[in-house]
Amino acid sequence: MTTVLSSRSIQLTWHPPDNPNGVILRFELYRNNTLITNNTAREHNDTGLAPYTLYTYHIVTFTERGSTRSLGNALARTFGDIPEGISAPQIFDTLPRSAKAKWTIPTSPNGIILKYLLVSVNSQNAEERIHCQGIIVSCHVTALKPYTVYNFTLEVCTRFGCGRSLPSVALTKPTRPESQPSPVVTSFPGGRSVSVTWDEPAEPNGKIFRYEVYMRRSPSIGDWDLKFQSYPQGNPQSADLRRTNVTDLTPFTEYEFLVRTYTAQVAGDTASNITRHVTGEAG
Predict the structure, then answer these.
(1) How far, CA to CA in Å, does 132 sit from each of 82, 102, 114, 157?
(2) Per residue in 239-277, pLDDT tens?
(3) pLDDT of 237
(4) 219 vs 152: CA distance, rounded Å
(5) pTM summary value
(6) What are the DSSP calls for 173-240, one per residue?
(7) Domains of the chain by range and CATH?
């Protein structure tokens, strides 16, 4: 008789033959035709088994005159368990806001797989997100943030629980900055110069490579005139590179100012909204 104890053990018990025809010397217990015990006991706990695996058992009984094999085989399947041997997902074709993923079946499912889940963790804010789930082995990953490190893991579930792989690390591509604040313009006494300062964009989407400050007469007179460029990347005093003074202005005159922000290795830029400012009166 077989009794499944767990995902890795089975208890076996048996009776001697109805007609032993002699003194029984020993019993040999075979699992999948491999000898696993040899003694006079009539029970054995078979351990170290694989989860959700079918095993066959038979007994050979020995007397002085010979041996007899039990009729047929006893069958038993161990209970399932949490999946094991889950490889990290492969992340490829990474873009600023999307990527592709694929993965392989676990080496030890330990049961019938009910679903796969691709999970990411944003390294900046530790936000965890499930991107796709189902009986699938690939996925188009969306809703990512540009220039962000993600840890992707694969979760595999059976009715006995879920196992998770080690992470695959991926960095999304940079793209243009978003939400560059408008510059703050302050007049100096005399009306012929102003101070221009600005903050970083709310979403840099990469390393800021350059800021540019543009000015023109208001309302919208003439082309924009480049007044200042700064390169904050790698500069320990980057805050000082978000301010400049603009001189040689006409007192009591309205000007328009804006800031353009460039991200390294990305074509294009993002411009702030326009700040209009009237210079002070001259003495």
Answers:
(1) 20, 11, 14, 14
(2) 568 999 999 999 999 999 999 999 987 878 899 999 999
(3) 59
(4) 51
(5) 0.80
(6) PP---B-PPPPEEEEPTTSS-EEEE-PPPSB--S-EEEEEEEEEETTTEEEEEEEEEE--TT-TTGGG
(7) 2-77 (2.60.40.10), 90-171 (2.60.40.10), 184-278 (2.60.40.10)
